[in-house]
Amino acid sequence: MVTPFDADGGLAEDETARLARHCLANGSDGLVLTGTTGEASTLSDDEKARVWEIGLEVSRAERPGAPVIAGTGSNDTRHAIELNERAAAAGVDGVLVVAPYYNRPNRRGLLAHFRAVAAATDLPIVVYNIPVRCGVDMPNDLLAELGRLDNVVAVKQARDEDVAPIDGVDLLAGNDDLLGRVLDMGGAGGILVASQVVGNEMRRMVDEPDRRAEIERGLLPLYAALGVAPACVSAKAALRLLGHAVGGVRLPMVDVDDGELATIRTALQAQGMLGEGGAAATPAGHSGRA
To answer: Is the pTM of this model over 0.85?
Structure first.
């Protein structure tokens, strides 16, 4: 989920709650908060904790039992452990831990990092492999080794090459266009960007396997349109067009330009979500502000 900001760039708490309700009402089984798309790298620890609290409040009220997963990854092992402690105190159901970025540890360093993180918490851990952002790739045999840690329960895989089931853990698609492939190979689902926008259609890919390929073909143009800018930027632009007051992004991210916005608008219109004049076509039973 994106992290909504107000006009001054601060955390928009009411809109965070509204968007969380929207996601749970439109195809999502749970909430993943303060991840890459949530602009975790520019959120303070206090802001992250508040987002988790809001998500938990919404989940407990709207759909008891819907899991809330907190993005707690860091390239500082001590900081990741501290964030996991705060997430556990908040009451989240699990954590999403990305490979250390920028300092780019070798294989032994990656193993040591995740072993230390896992040993310091009882929370279920989703390991996040996204080499394009982290500068390090965790091959499948390394992920399987991490899966032998007691509380590593899943892998969010955002690497297109060699996507395959991982022994001992659930496989989750980390890119929108990987969802169909991951489901076809028996994966558990995905942690996705477009699910905030077309969650019900993506839910159909889970529930209607015989029509999965057809549904995916229909969504590919939207996935491509959401790729014209970084995920948090394009997702927020799409959500604003659909009536969600999610605000802008924090530097060093910058908002979409006119051409990028036009591409996203055209894709939403093709999905029947916007009228010709650009007004949101509100889903039945939901207001435009969700």
So the answer is: yes
